[in-house]
Specification:
Layout lengths: L16 H18 L13 E6 L5 H12 L3 E6 L11 H9 L5 E6 L4 H8 L3 E7 L5 H15 L6 E5 L6 H12 L3 E5 L15 E3 L2 H7 L2 E4 L15 H8 L3 H5 L6 E3 L12 H4 L6 H23 L3
Parallel strand pairs: 1-2, 1-3, 3-4, 5-6, 5-8, 6-7, 8-9
Helix pairs in contact: 1-11, 2-11, 5-6, 5-11
Amino acid sequence: MNSLSVNHLLGIKYLNLNDLELIFKTADNFKQVINRPIKKVPSLRDVTIANLFFENSTRTKLSFELAEKRLSADILNFSSSQSSVKKGESLIDTVNNILAMKVDMVVIRHSNPGAPHLLSNEVDATIINAGDGAHEHPTQALLDSYSIRQEIGSLKNKNILIVGDILHSRVALSNIFALQLQGANVSVCGPNTLIPKYIEELGVKVESNLDKALKWCDVANMLRLQNERMSESFFPSVREYRKYYGLTKERLNKLNKEIVIMHPGPINRGVEITSEVADSKNSIILDQVENGVAIRMAVIYLLAKKNINH
């Protein structure tokens, strides 16, 4: 199959395994492009993409922007702090005004879960979800899976551990869907207060002891504490969190095997992971960043090919 089964990228849970394989194969090609001296392809000349970020973002926003530029698309950047949203304009009015400028595709990050879904039903453009509240972050999960596959091959029956603030993390949910689609076993580890009640219904194991969880896993994906989404205290102190759930060289040395270390960023060094571990040879954190551009190029390209007739 050489076209996606969906018209928008709203979440991993709407994709099938063929979609994932197609995105990864397309990303392989784009990875070669971004490592060439001339890093651009004319694939999306005449396609206009609006980046609507209603929540702060550095890495995801830059990664999408770079991906769009590498594909030669025209770009509109919109940040809500400098917009009429502050004056009370509704999301759909804002987007319709942007679409009146003849925009083909909208990349949106919003603090409300479901905002991209709402848009996909209301406006006439291809929507890519760049993170909606604590719901999903599909391109992050795609680049995470792609990075793991580069490192250890097929994910079938591999043990993948996600550690940290699962409750507030859209990365965790998208990753769980993507990993299970590829046949991986998924376990989460963190303070009980930061593990959502429904997680076991998704077929995910819960382990509260990090050392036990590390013995089990092939890959550990460390998430930061999302302090900006916490309205109350979920654990006694950062020091205590670090003691029980921080990934340190000592912890890794106790394992009689090597594991792959990941982090979606931004990293709180010395909290969920020490600098020594983040910068070690087992860490693929910088590969994730590089792969992010190739994966986002693939997603944008495949959706444009499917939806936008030239």
